[in-house]
């Protein structure tokens, strides 16, 4: 076998492996799309994450009020990073507690 044929064989094997990995990744990521949890609000169906984030935002404001009242807001680090992360944390916790 020549060096050129070995390279073409290696290239075709690499493409086959990449195609298999891409197919497996697509199957893994698309497996969660079969059912989206919804709630019925006055005849309309809304995703559950909207309800969780609508509850998490006021809870974050309440946490901010508590941090300001106890003079702890300066201790939490960059506020522009802290409060969005707190919203995401509370949204995820609400979803896990009530809808999972």
From TrEMBL:
Keywords: Cell membrane, Lipoprotein, Membrane, Palmitate, Signal, Transmembrane, Transmembrane helix. The chain crosses the membrane at residues 48-67, 79-98. GO terms for cellular component: membrane. PROSITE patterns: PROKAR_LIPOPROTEIN (PS51257). It is a multi-pass membrane protein. It is found in: Membrane. It comes from the Bacteria. The keyword Lipoprotein applies. InterPro entries: YtcA. Belongs to the YtcA family. This is Uncharacterized protein YtcA.
């Amino acid at each position: 076998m020549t060096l050129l044929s070995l390279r073409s064989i290696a290239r075709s094997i690499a493409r086959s492996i990449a195609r298999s990995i891409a197919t497996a990744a697509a199957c893994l990521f698309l497996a969660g799309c079969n059912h989206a949890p919804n709630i019925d609000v006055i005849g309309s169906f809304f995703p559950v994450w909207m309800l969780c984030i609508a509850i998490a935002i006021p809870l974050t404001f309440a946490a901010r009020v508590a941090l300001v009242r106890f003079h702890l807001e300066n201790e939490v680090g960059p506020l522009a990073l802290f409060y969005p992360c707190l919203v995401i944390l509370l949204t995820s916790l609400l979803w896990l507690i009530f809808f999972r």
